[in-house]
């Protein structure tokens, strides 16, 4: 007699087929109509209560590294609580089991800077920042969540005995004392920190960890130490140094899966040494993945992380993207929350993929190694892991088919004291628009046997536990932040960031106003350059809607020390590091010097206008304003317009506050008001220049200044040629004019001579300038003209690093000559080396990269030794290609950080333009620092 199999199928996918064994026959019950089909390939999974494996430590996420939770605290209720529920509440959403937070250091650590509890030595303020609030909210929803603190940077006074700017020593007793103070602040907030790390991704000092361990023990602080939130090399020192081993509780490794940061995670790795330490092995940071498209790599990092590397905890970076949309990584994490004024948010597929593990497991459970593996024995078909508690009262199997292409069957046999009752099935569709964490049905095994059919591109949880759930709260629609916007910074609690104000570098906090002004203001609190995690910049903070267009931003300012304050407008895209911020800056110094500066995403600063007004001095309040109307940008100091410039680079963007350096200046009464009366039509300056100027040759540059009919005359007009570096210009006509009437034009010309240097750019841009007075304010109007300066064909046997680039595109920072790629700044590379072999000459690049050279058909041979630079080994994977006139001349297989250097020796006879191309190895470009070691040509004379 056929016994009943209880099955509830939802119509959304009809993707689970439940099969039971009856008298030796296999019967299929499915939500599909009955059809005759061939059985999909099967994997046999035996889940036995006597099975053994490592202890599961949990799934978590990281708030910090940096500023990625900043906007969440400013969300209105009930949306703020709903987002928190989706992240932390058991049985509702991600149900995180671990929360790692940044220990703020006043320095940018990716998407912003997080405030320190001790900006200056000896003054501890335990309410600084929002991570305390976030941990409190996580604990409120899940008292069992474990907390983990880690520093990305530190205040500049730490380990800085000589008070050297940026010269502090992180690995110092000061830093240990600072961490102990931070733990004390946690206690004040009713928080017990479970884990503590050292310096994020900056290596380790074994003696420092030993001192940290001793300091915690002396104070009876039951905090476990994680080392070293970087690479696997720390395990070698743990294995070889017993005192260090006794000081470390967890081995924490970052991005231990294929592709590293943001990679595919098709495979993961650890080391025999790491697995043999006897300590838990964690992927203490992983992810860097889009909230939706990264879900597949996220689940692979968890399941395959255990299968391949025995990682027992996974922490996703970041928790969510509660950052402005013009910042890097604005969609990574489990959710996106970038509009606190509207309350709008988006929940990512990654959130529900996380729920597939967290809602069916508990930290402390054991992996069952015999019931974990790859479907069909092939990682291309997917993977599965099984976990159970020590008392065998439940079990859960998590299956991912993220890389599978066809349906498969899994045949389960359950025994060894594990429950054989109802199995609940939850699933997430990883495809675009797929539904997440849906209860698709229940299965009642027969005599411990059941089967399921698994569709490709899904994550399944098969569990005997209950209490799972899918939250029901819905986001409101997005909307713009309306103007006018004003903030007097009168927050009830000092020492916090102002509403919507997001620190990029330094720390801008509310504090009692100085200079005799009552109430509260915003003060930049970092008094010196911090110990930094990425490159330095001026201290600044951003606020508002990236779609704001024509407005006036104004703020009262008070300079605490001699120096310069900044008011920022039309702030747009930011690239890493934070100094690569597009926007306009009004700078005003205590001396009265002012300027309007344009910054771009390459970190270039261009002064568009400058002058001097009455000295601002120090410790007195003044008012700055920066107004945008179309292309006209007007600066005002204390209500007086000091200058205007026309520039069309950025039509819209946020506002911000800043200081040049690290002065503790103050700001008050921030206002952003819409421009009601458009500026007068701007003057124009056109320029004419031949399309080509040979090196060392001369040509004529002609400019024409035209004043529109509307508005007043231009007086005191001066025209300048705006020549590029190393060019010479001689005027051939008058370049100054007493007055130009509305509706009229004037012209000026120069003879310009090109330089002869080999590093002269192939394309040069002239920026002629007109300065004049109009309608009571000084104006700056620019023109533009470009010319090509051909590169002569190389001769002899030159190194390519000594030749001019026709063009140079690079995946991280600029192409470097004779050094490795380094970071984002020019000239920050290290000596090139491939598996220990140094190269004094060559090009350091980062995938995806394309560097072009003009050969003019005069060369016959190219040679180089290529590979991943030792700076990032063993990580990274790239392909090198040599492309001549659109044809691939030579290429390499995929080279990894463990591959030996490969010699390229290619015939380039007749090639006019040669491109040196480096592509990523198919897994993203994380860690892809690549060297063209000793790259050289053989050419005719």
Tell me what you see in this structure:
The chain has 941 residues and is mostly beta strands. Helix content is 10%, strand content 38%. The protein contains nine helices and 62 strands. Strands 23, 25, 26, 28, 35, 36, 37, 39, 42, 44, 47 and 48 form a twelve-stranded mixed sheet that branches. β7 (195-199), α4 (206-218) and β8 (224-230) form a beta-alpha-beta unit. α1 (79-88) packs across α2. It starts with 16 loop residues before the first strand and ends with a strand. 52% of the residues are buried. Mean pLDDT is 94; it is low at 1-36.
Helix/strand class: mainly beta
Number of helices: 9
Chain oligomer state: single chain
In total, the number of strands is 62
- Overall mean pLDDT stands at 94
Distance N to C terminus:
94 Å
As a whole number of angstroms, the C-alpha radius of gyration is 31 Å
| Low-pLDDT residue intervals, each spanning 5 or more residues | 1-36
Tertiary shape: globular
- Specify the biggest β-sheet: 12 strands, mixed
In what range is the share of β-strand residues? 35-45%
Q: Portion of residues in helices?
A: under 10%
